[in-house]
Amino acid sequence: MDKAGLAVKQRYQKFLDDVVPFMVPRWLFVLGIIFYFVYRIMTLQGWYISCYALAIFHLNLFIAFLSPKIDPSFEMAESMEDDEGPALPTNNNEEFRPFIRRLPEFKFWEQTVISTLVAIFTTFFECFNVPVFWPILVMYFFILFFLTMKRQIKHMIKFRYLPFTHGKTKYKGKPEVS
Known about the structure:
The protein has helices at about 5-20, 25-45, 50-65, 70-80, 105-120, 135-160. With about 180 residues, it is mainly α. The chain has 6 helices and no strands. Helices cover about 60% and strands about 0% of the residues. The termini are far apart.
């Protein structure tokens, strides 16, 4: 890699390192560029294929964000072959295993920004304005979204994991006896 390419890569990595702690502003920026993209699609009355492709890509990113890095269903199938039983803890006496995402939050944010900027870029070129009947795409996306989320939620219930944390767990002390 030449010096100019290396310098650009280092500046990009420095920028990413600088924005890591600012989660809320990062996601507000994402919402802003998505709203700009939707505004552009609505005012131009076209580029519905770009919008549909972006929505499908964002759905795939979201599913990867909700999924565990090591899928318990694969782990369970492997452990059943070894006759060791399920790999996840089944009661409170077993080992705690934290939820590790297949796609970390920061990578989710980064890929969302990049894909949205690429989709905005495609709206500047007429070759990406393929004429389609957009209500069919919207209906198909919602069907795909609901079926995919239903499957993901069933998976979460079956293997008892919750992909969201709400800070440190607070325990109640023993009630005082007077």
